[in-house]
Amino acid sequence: MKSKLIVGNWKMNGGLQANSALLSAIQSGLSSVTCRAAVCVPSPYLAQMQTLLVGSSLAWGAQDVSAHESGAYTGEVSASMLRDFGVRYCLVGHSERRQYHAESDTLVATKAQRALSAGITPIVCVGETQAERAAGQTEAVVKRQLAAVIHANGHCISEIVVAYEPVWAIGTGLTASPEQAQVVHGLLRKQLQAATAQADRMAILYGGSMNAENAATLLAQPDVDGGLIGGAALKADDFLTILASASR
Ligand code: PGA
User: Is residue 32 part of a domain?
Assistant: First the structure.
């Protein structure tokens, strides 16, 4: 069985001292963890991750990357800069980026390309809003979002990680039921299978109010290969419980 992948998304939270306390608490519980694990942190703290997590089984990642390689793009951070700080993963197309920064499917696909060309694994987030689900558009929306990335990345598509994050479940305490998650993960798997022979070994993560209580049942679904964890990743005990559920 392939090993599951649990990724913490710290969003815009943290500080030098708080990060260091959180990481040491997480690291003290890592010895029994057999799944893959990472934390995606705000860019200013990547150097701190490189220092504190060197040699640890906990990888680190960024939450966004520029679609440009370099140049006059004030405020942007390039994939090669992230690489300088040992970044293994980079979230792209998180719904908060799509919603608050008007990121289009095409832009997200380019960002995934930039990450891949720097040797960073993009974690491509897809997911429908509550209104889209109510209108019966879930399948069309997630397929459209993933199709843009498949189209732009050709045979490299097998190198990405996909995260299904229903927008209505993010930070709301509402979680997709394990069955609802499996239905969408199954659709995404089929879409990947049509694009690459490697689809079965690719990771499709679930995100959206995954926590210490519900992780085990979500992770038991055949096409749920891990989790993208927001709020619960900021509490060491909760994050470790999720890591334990993914290590079974
Ligand atoms: P949540 O966030 O776990 O707090 O719902 C998940 C995410 O946005 O990646």
Answer: no
pLDDT at 2 over 90: no
Q: How many domains does the chain have?
A: 1
Ligand 1 pocket test: pick from 90, 126, 170, 218 the residue with the most ligand atoms within 8 Å of its Cβ: 170
pTM of the entire predicted model: 0.98
At residue 12, the pLDDT reads 98
Give domain status of residue 191, yes or no: yes
Q: What are phi and psi of 222, to 5 degrees?
A: -60, -30
Domain CATH code at residue 162: 3.20.20.70
pLDDT per position as a tens digit, 8-35: 999 999 999 999 999 999 999 999 999 9
- Per residue in 66-111, pLDDT (tens digit) is 999 999 999 999 999 999 999 999 999 999 999 999 999 999 999 9
Q: Which atom of ligand 1 is nearest to the CA of 233?
A: 3
Measured in angstroms, how far is the CA atom of residue 71 from the centroid of ligand 1?
32
Instruction: Give the closest residue (by CA) to ligand 1 atom 1.
Output: 230
b/e map 63-73, b = 16+ CB within 10 Å = bbbbbeeeeee
